[in-house]
Amino acid sequence: MPIITLPDGSQREFKSAITPADVAADIGPGLAKAALGARVNGELVGLDHKIEADADMSLITPPRGDDPCDPDALWLLRHSAAHVMAEAVQQSIPGAMLVYGPPVEEGFYYDIALPEGASISTDDFPDLESRMAKIIEADRPFTRSELSIDDGLERLKREGSKYKLDNAERAIEAGADGLSWYATGEPNQDWDDLCKGPHLPSTGKIGGFKIMSVAASSWHGDVDSDRLTRLYGTAFPDRKRLAKHLEQLEEARKRDHRVIGRKLGLFKIDEMVGQGLVLWTPAGAIVRQELQDFIGHELKRQGYEQVFTPHIAKLDLFRTSGHFPYYQDSQYPPVVDPEAMRQLVNENCTCGELSNRLREGDLDGYLLKPMNCPMHIRIFSSEQRSYRDLPVRLAEFGTVYRYEQSGELGGMLRVRGFTQDDAHLFCTEEQLQDEIAGCLELVQIIFKTLGIEAFDVRVGLRDPDASKYVGDPAHWERAEEACRAAAETLGVDWVAEEGEAAFYGPKIDFVVRDAIGRKWQLGTVQVDYNLPERFDLNYVGSDNTPHRPVMIHRAPFGSMERFIGFLIEHFAGAFPTWLAPEQIRVLPVSEKSEAYARSVHDDLLSAGRRVSLDAGSDRLQARIRIAAEQKIPYILVVGPRDAEAGSVSVRARGIERDLGAVPLQAFLEAVRVEVEERTSGAVEALFTGETAV
RNA sequence: GCCACCGUAGCUCAGUGGUAGAGCACACCCUUGGUAAGGGUGAGGUCACGGGUUCAAGUCCCGUCGGUGGCUCCA
Predict the structure, then answer these.
(1) Model confidence pLDDT, tens digit, residues A75-109
(2) Where in the sequence numbering do the catalytic residues of A fall?
(3) Facing residues of A510 across strands?
(4) How far apart are CA A231 and CA A228, in angstroms?
(5) Nearest to A513 by CA among A578, A558, A430, A569
(6) What is the mean pLDDT of residues A363-387?
(7) How far apart are the C-alpha atoms of A198 and A73, rounded to whole Å?
(8) For A509, phi and psi rounded to 5 degrees?
């Protein structure tokens, strides 16, 4: 006689086996009608799930009013919507074979193997959507039917879909004791799909849905396997929430760094220059320079030494480091010495031979550097090092070149030439933990100063049963422990990811999301046992014998390109005063005040501010609008009254009104504080009276 | 690299087989205006590039280049 315990602690007893639907009905008809599914002893189940023993149960219902939607409710909606979409596709394209259709973060997708010659394009979406709408309108029940493994496999073989058969075999391997199908309607009569479930009670619960995009995918994520078509969609309990979601996507696109970057003239990627190669225009260059100065200051404090190294080096260097030819596919092809090139031409050397000779080392060439570390290592080993010298910390804003696949490139977030705020630390085993901590401190300072709060910390560790790693397991143990301990000091949640370590050592990565939700790695701290070995690095210990140093690679920004791309989206182009390409714009009310405006402008300029004067023929309103759209932090409007009083009338970005007039010197001082302390609010404080200047 | 879609003025976009358009931006003129677009005139295009089909191609077909979203990859 099952006793069901509800989330509020109340209990209900039933005479025989029941389902969540029965429990809901027992509580009330409204709930029974609204329920989408349930959690029984923590497991997400459908309303038709049989409960035979005592259980904790909570019912999953659509959100009320403006409440956020329960993740379980979204999961059910989207899983079921994926089925409805699949049915629509199979109606529209006979012979389309379904592969795999899970809910994902923002919706769901279904991977489909289309028959030869068929394709789905965005033009097909309206038709597919109207087919889906009909299925949803019919409010057909999702009904589960089960077969034994043998009968189920037989059915799948009869139906002839190798994909579904593969899914079933995988499920059996994972321990399934039967196979289940979900029909939208009557089993063996209406459309159905092999599926573990659970699903909504009926299609009518899908209140709002939309097919979002179509893309290619490959079976089992293997590019050499079958090419599949992946249809993405999303679903919500109601149309209002769908509309809101679409609106948010629209808003997010306005934050896109490619859109803002163009509007504010921050950078340009020119096809004549090359894919993934960034031109930093004057405004963007200011942001970059300010960030470099900022981190440069912290580096000095932490005892780093600045170095500079070339963009290109002999192939042999990268053979020694292992970067060439191991990562050859993601490098620009090597450059061959002109003399050697002439010789090769005389020999009628083919491209294939040339490539072979470069790979084998019969011919030396030069490589655009994919990494800075080999050069920093050569600086380290350029003199005899004592344990007293360690740690040695060599820093460089080093530009590296990687031939990323063309389909991967995007704005500034994935490029082919980028500048890392790179450094390599050479230290003893004993120093490792402190050095890692120092690196994390840098990342924290950066994130805190810039107000970056939404980020993930990932600690990449060894895969316990893999042997692909270099270095002494005891050292690994210690390094991993050092990484965990250092991550712990951050005071934020972090996740340990086994198998995500580099082959040469464990690492700590900082991951953020862009405007459309994609994840990108920014800062990274990596321990390396491999390169010290390859380059035979050593230092003389207190015991007067040579020892191998440990290396740390670290880049708190990651790369200037990706970091600033992200930062543009983080601030939606509205950089804080210290970073803003233009900090202040002075607008004379009319020509009569132009001379005073100019003197204000000149004073600000002498004080080191980035300022401009707009004395154009547009009306004041128009000039304010133009300056506001440029996201300039402060607009100073000056007219005859200001000229008389030696004041400026201040408008701060984001506040759509005149804050009032203050003496120029007071404004200057407040801006100085914002810039030098890399904070904001000092100017506004002039008007709230919190800080009298 | 793979799949789908896209490429028209500096930017955002309209134009689907028959004489290349709009708004913003730009230049000049008028306007001198106290807080988010005053008015006028003008300049600006090998419709990404190369081939093909057609009496006729921005429009249809093929290829190349570039972009976008995914997939895969990411030292």
Answers:
(1) 999 999 999 999 999 998 888 999 999 999 889 99
(2) 373, 402, 420, 422, 424, 507, 553
(3) A457
(4) 10
(5) A569
(6) 95
(7) 11
(8) -115, 150
Instruction: Determine if residue A592 is left, alpha or beta; phi over 0 gives left, psi from -120 to 50 gives alpha, anything else beta.
Output: alpha
Nucleotide nearest to A123 (CA to C1'): B5
Question: How many Å from the CA of A569 to C1' of B34?
Answer: 34
Angle between helices A282-301 and A560-571 (to 10 degrees): 110
Chain B nucleotides with an atom closer than 7 Å to a protein C-beta: 1-5, 11-12, 25, 29-39, 65-75
The rounded percent of chain A whose pLDDT value lies above 90 is 74
Question: How long is the CA A230 to C1' B4 vector, in angstroms?
Answer: 10
Quick one: which residue's CA is nearest to B39's C1'?
Answer: A618
HEC per residue, A467-532: CCCCCCHHHHHHHHHHHHHHHHCCCCCEEEEECCCECCECEEEEEEECCCCCEEEEEEEEEECHHH
Q: Are A489 and A437 in contact (CB under 8 A)?
A: yes
Asked if residue A691 has pLDDT above 60, the reply is no
Alpha-carbon distance of A486 to A431, in angstroms, equals 13
Smallest CA–C1' separation from A322: which nucleotide?
B75
Question: In whole angstroms, what is the distance from residue A444 CA to residue A452 CA?
Answer: 9
What are A127's two structure tokens? 């038709």
Spatial distance between the Cα atoms of A231 and A212, rounded to a whole number of angstroms? 8
Model confidence pLDDT, tens digit, residues A377-426: 999 999 999 999 999 999 999 999 999 999 999 999 999 999 999 999 99
Nucleotide nearest to A369 (CA to C1'): B75
- Is the CB of residue A398 less than 8 Å from the CB of residue A367? no
pTM equals: 0.93
Euclidean distance between CA atoms A496 and A484, whole angstroms: 8
Residue nearest to nucleotide B73 (CA to C1'): A405
Say if CB A192 and CB A183 are below 8 A apart. Answer: yes
Distance A410 CA to B68 C1' (A): 9
Q: Enumerate the H helices of A221-372 as residue ranges.
A: 239-255, 257-263, 282-301, 315-321, 338-346, 351-360
Check residue A693 and give its pLDDT: 42
Distance between the alpha carbon (CA) of A623 and the C1' atom of B25, Å: 14
Provide, in whole angstroms, the distance separating residue A619's CA from nucleotide B36's C1'.
Answer: 11
Q: How far is CA A381 from the centre of its chain?
A: 37
DSSP β-ladder status, A584-588 and A539-540: unpaired
User: CB–CB of A426/A391 below 8 Å?
Assistant: yes
Concatenate the DSSP letters of all residues of A148-217 into one string. Answer: -HHHHHHHHHHHT-HHHHHHHHHHHHTT-SSEEEEEESSTTTS-EEE------SBGGG--EEEEEEEEEE
Residue closest to B71, CA→C1'?
A217
Question: Nearest nucleotide by C1' from A223 CA?
Answer: B72
The Cα A682–Cα A678 span in angstroms is: 11
pLDDT at A364 over 90: no
